[in-house]
């Protein structure tokens, strides 16, 4: 799950970024409303954690601009302000959930998972493509009911693909999602990971297809039914 965290309290932002990343999330942290707005225009996020009291551009303005661009990305508002009127107003402006400070990390993670699940039309925290399943609660892949052991990079790539199964993802989108916290990663590394995953999925009922000019898509393998 790729998260944009817009929070200007540096101690909280640093702690949240590290805590969420340790739980398996990918986090881009911005401490200014203008930077958060620019990241949302350019980036590809699954969910936004948005503080209202941002410098540069308020959280409300960031939210209004996001919805004006017709972006469907779910937004959880995280703020010290906890009046009923403000919560109602923020939800009307396009927020999907509201969590006042202070909060428990476990509740934030559960709410983020639920928001992303609802935005994808899922009724449980599990992603699937044919016989391949990913359980976001246990962060494990299973293939035909059996645990599929993967390296951290292999799991990151396959998680990115299954999160949008059937939809091509470009090389840059995959690089951004899998290697966001690493510097100077060569594109050839993605090719190596793709080759390994294809070997693991060979004749399994699911495949990674290449679409010229569009990228890669995880999809059921029609050859298995032939």
Automatic annotation (TrEMBL):
Pfam families recorded: Response_reg, Trans_reg_C
Species: Pseudaquabacterium inlustre
Occurrences of domain Response regulatory (ranges): 2-116
DNA-binding region extent: 124-220
InterPro entries per UniProt: CheY-like_superfamily, OmpR/PhoB-type_DNA-bd, Sig_transdc_resp-reg_receiver, WalR-like, WH-like_DNA-bd_sf
The name this protein goes by in its record: Response regulator
Location of 4-aspartylphosphate modifications: 51
Domain OmpR/PhoB-type positions: 124-220
Keywords attached to this entry: DNA-binding, Phosphoprotein, Transcription, Transcription regulation
